[in-house]
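Recap from last week: sequence in, structure out.
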Amino acid sequence: MELTLPPRVTDRAFARLAEIAELTGDARALRVAVDGGGCSGFQYDIKLDEAAADDLVLEKDGQRVLVDQVSLPFLSNAVIDFTEELIGARFVVQNPNATSSCGCGTSFSI
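Predicted structure tokens:
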């Protein structure tokens, strides 16, 4: 049985959060949540947000990533990263729990 661990945030994702805060003056945390819906049954909801009392807070160099308690089991052992590709730059979730995903990169099934 695989050990259940909280998601990990890459240094690149934390660095991009710091850039966003510096450029926009918006120092809110990055919330990564899982909602029902999307092409494959679940979808990621990634946005800047304020922390709630029961959030898991992942922090480095003053930057924070939040995961709510409902989303946490879906993100066990996942990696939250930032990528820049020809199609655009975005935060991405590399999720070992997803059995399939959609081409959009935000929808997955378990």
